[in-house]
Design goal:
five-stranded parallel sheet
Length: 458
């Protein structure tokens, strides 16, 4: 290996790694990751400037819009300037004050080499850290994970106290949902820093930086393994749909994985366009039946917001379901899987399926709709379980992964029982009981698929 090459984890594509991780590395935001920072210099500089005096700062972007990476970069620069930046990720189970308390205690221990008295309050520890004249900046990321608006309103009072103690406080969230009040009725406590959506050019800049960082050979083109038309297609698709950097990273990450597994050494535009609609397929196929049902409800509704009561009731599972509950328990987990994204319209959050998730759900519906359920049920009733299993699997690999896996399990279970019967290890009565259990399982699977089929044809 020459000096111009590095160890290769993706040999076909000549990449040392797949850098398009959709979540920033909180603990490992080191110089290597800082070199990948893209297109948000203005926002980082504004955070650093505002935090130079005791202020509350509210960093705003949709989920996956780059809040965390901007915050981490700003804190790295503050640290270089002699500030004590303390980062905490919001945990709804602990609350704002507790996550900050744990973070400042940890920082005190690192700075002084011993733990502080556990009876010290958050404000007392902050004052102790500032005793030597150093500035302290406290940051709480993802406050939009809070469970209710009352909890967020309490944050405003806590921040006022910390500002009076001479610390700056940076909070990240969204300008809708539970953090809406932070910039509408927080009494002027918070200065806003809004992170704009990425343009096609900024997506390309991000793509090139990430790819150059993992090229196994330094002489490769800056966009290798893609061609210029493929890069243009991806970046324009994401920018036109107002997709976030997280969703862009997710899509390119999946594309690289698929093409490496296929043995491709180059990914032309034609390949990108062909695989682009299917990049979320494995995520959708691995969902539990209830989550798949939720995706179908969102697809049928086109968009879910507090103004879509029918969809909210269906997602919540009862007619009295409320939007905050559905947002936390149903929609947020799907957003975190990169198959649902959020936009804002007239101050309200709007939940949509990503284009790739839409394509995956439609394919599953088409597959389910093509099944002859009456035939399969008749085969099970006639004790022709092997034929029933074959009929279910005969629709190809586009079955939901969770259902396909259970079908394979039933095939194996039946085969082992049959062999045990032939070997004299079990008697006919036990074998028949096992066949009955398999038949019941198959009927349950058919029921799940039939529900999807009926919804697809409505």
């Amino acid at each position: 290996m020459t000096n111009n090459t590095r160890s290769v984890s993706y040999p076909h594509l000549q990449l040392t790694d797949n850098p398009f991780i959709p979540v920033p590395p909180i603990q490992g935001y080191d110089e290597d990751f800082r070199r990948l920072f893209t297109s948000r210099e203005k926002e980082v500089s504004k955070i650093c400037r505002l935090a130079s005096a005791p202020r509350g700062i509210f960093v705003i972007a949709p989920f996956g819009g780059g809040k965390t990476i901007v915050l981490l970069e700003a804190m790295s620069r503050m640290r270089e300037a002699g500030v004590i930046p303390i980062y905490a990720s919001f945990d709804p189970e602990k609350g704002f004050r507790q996550v900050l308390l744990e973070a400042v205690r940890s920082m005190y221990g690192r700075l002084h080499g011993h733990n502080i008295d556990r009876h010290q309050t958050l404000r007392q520890i902050v004052q102790t850290l500032r005793d030597n004249g150093r500035e302290v900046v406290l940051a709480v990321d993802d406050l939009d994970r809070a469970n209710d608006i009352a909890e967020v309103k309490q944050v405003t009072d806590d921040v006022r106290d910390l500002l009076s103690d001479g610390a700056s406080v940076v909070i990240t969230g969204q300008e809708f949902g539970v953090t809406f009040d932070l910039h509408t009725s927080a009494g002027g406590v918070f200065q806003r820093v809004t992170i704009p959506a990425f343009t096609a050019g900024e997506f390309q800049q991000l793509l090139e930086k990430y790819l150059r960082s993992v090229h196994a050979v330094t002489s490769l083109s800056s966009i290798h393994p893609f061609d210029a038309e493929g890069v243009k297609f991806m970046c324009q698709e994401m920018a036109q749909a107002n997709m976030t950097p997280r969703l862009f990273n997710f899509a390119v990450c999946q594309l690289i994985e698929i093409c490496e597994e296929s043995g491709l050494s180059f990914i032309p535009c034609e390949t990108v366009e062909g695989k682009w609609p299917k990049l979320a397929q494995h995520v959708v196929n691995s969902l539990a039946p209830q989550q798949l049902k939720h995706l179908e409800i969102i697809l049928n509704a086109k968009v879910v917001s507090e103004d879509t009561p029918k969809a909210i009731a269906e997602l919540g599972g009862h007619r009295y379901a409320e939007f905050p509950e559905v947002r936390t328990e149903v929609l947020r987990p799907l957003v975190e899987k990169n198959i649902v994204y959020v936009t804002k319209e007239q101050g309200k959050d709007q939940y949509h399926l990503t284009p790739q998730a839409t394509a995956a759900v439609l394919e599953i519906q088409e597959t389910s709709a093509s099944m002859d359920f009456d035939l399969i049920i008749e085969l099970i009733a006639s004790d022709k379980l092997e034929d029933a299993l074959s009929a279910i699997r005969g629709n190809g690999q586009s079955l939901p992964k969770n259902i396909a896996g259970r079908i394979v399990m039933q095939l194996g279970r039946l085969a082992r029982s049959k062999q045990a019967l032939l070997d004299g290890q079990i008697n006919r009565e036990i074998f028949d009981a096992e066949r009955t259990r398999v038949a019941e399982m198959l009927l349950g699977l058919i029921g799940e698929l039939q529900v999807s089929s009926e919804r697809a044809t409505k």
